[in-house]
Structures are given as C-alpha cells and as structure tokens.
C-alpha cells in the first residue's frame, strides 16, 4: 500500500461528512425559503391582508340614467346620462388614486343598463330604479353615490345639491366635505343637502348603504354646462368629490371602528394560523429529506 493511497483513504470520511452536511443544509434552507417566498407572494396577492393597517371600505358609484333613458338634455345637446357616466367613472378613479384600499364598484361603466329590458318592461323608469337598487343592495357596499344633473325652466338656476336619508349622518357629513372641497376649487354654488323625508327617492330610500344622490349642476344653464363639459374642470370636480369620501372614510372606516372589524380580525387570525402550518410543513419536509439522505458512516 503506497503512502499516497493511505492518505486518500484517511481523508475520505471527512469529505463525505462535509458534503453530507452541505447537502442537508441546502435542502433545509432551499425548502424553507421556497415556502416563505410562497407566503410572501400570497400576502401580496391578497388585498385583504392590508386591511388591518389601513382604511378599507367599499363604495358603489351609480351613473344616473343610461340605456333608453337619457335623462335631461343639456344646452349643448349632450345628455345627462353621458355627463353622469363621465363623472361617475372620474370620481371612482380619483377615489382609488387617493386610497387604493377603498374598493370602488359601479352600477354601469358604459351606456348599458342590463337590469332592465326595454322590450318587456311596462314601466321602464320604475323597473330601471328597482333593478339598479337591487344591484346596489346585492353588492353590499358601505356607501352609494348616485350621480345626476338638474334641469329647470329658469335657465339661470345653478349649483349643486344632494339628497340623503334623514337619519344618515355619514352621508350628511360627506356632503359637507364635498361642498367644502368644491368651494375650494371655485365650482358653482352650494344649494345644500336635503332629506328624502320630504322628497323620497328610490335610489336613496330603497338601498341599504349610506346613500347620496348628488345633482352636480344644471343642464339648463349654459355657463354651467360649459364648465361641466370642460375636461380640466371635470377632473377637479371629480377629485373634490372623491376627497370628500376619502376624508370621511379615513376617519371612520379604520380597523378599530370598521363595521366588519370582527370579520377582519378572524381572517387575520386564520392567516397567521395558515402561515404557522406552512412553516411546520416546511420543517417536516426538511427533516424527512435529511433522513432520506444516506448518512456518512465510515
Ligand atoms: Zn337625473
């Protein structure tokens, strides 16, 4: 036996042990990081994960009229339903920009009003309101904003106003925020907020969330139509309204006062439990992998 060969034989067990340890470590850390990455990805994909730290709310924006029902016709012949859709989408977009945690839904995002069939409906406007209100209630949001525009014989009438339920303090406060923000950008005149107790409105009275029907201006006032039709002014008005909601939601729908607080707490607990289980499974898999690996014996 040569000395060279003897030397090689003596070193072999140490090489084997070292290599085995490296393999085990690689398997354990590889599996662990794989599971943790998966958890991180899941956390990112689930928007409700952020609920516990930031405001979470849900609003549905209803563009008034649509389909066969054009609403009022403006001084530039553009219909109220077209204005309503532009403003509804604009307000929703601004809300999401200001706080992406607020879920924004719409009753319609184009001219279609699929909840009412013009060919079978005997009373189109009534069936439209029933279908619209049912849709809102099904979606179960915290807030509803129905966007409309006024019209009067007197073409000098101008300004914005809103209708809320008499006992809806939230919508009343939100209107005050909106009026303040519209004043700041110098838009028209605050005509005030009215209770539907004296002026019942289906979309406000027959829906479950905090509901407001806003009349944003007069289709019969040439100057106001011009302002409302300007893309720059529209962007400003939409942002002012969106801010009115976000300001209110920020103060009221935080995790501690959120009406869904218990539900959210439970979900967070379930998520923590799931994470713990995933970690345990990862450790178990690593152990099994280590056992399956031949141990260095020599
Ligand atoms: Zn209208």
TrEMBL record:
Keywords assigned: Hydrolase
GO MF annotation list: N-acetylmuramoyl-L-alanine amidase activity
Domain of life assignment: Bacteria
Keyword rRNA-binding: no
GO BP, sorted A to Z: peptidoglycan catabolic process
CDD domains in the record: MurNAc-LAA (cd02696)
Positions of the UniProt region annotated as Disordered: 250-298
Domain MurNAc-LAA: 133-246
Low complexity compositional bias, start-end: 281-292
Amino acid composition bias (Basic and acidic residues), ranges on this chain: 250-280
Membrane-spanning segments: none
InterPro entries referenced in this protein's UniProt entry, alphabetically: MurNAc-LAA_cat, N-acetylmuramoyl_amidase_3
GO terms for cellular component: outer membrane-bounded periplasmic space
Protein name: MurNAc-LAA domain-containing protein
Protein species of origin: Dubosiella newyorkensis
Lineage: Bacteria, Bacillati, Bacillota, Erysipelotrichia, Erysipelotrichales
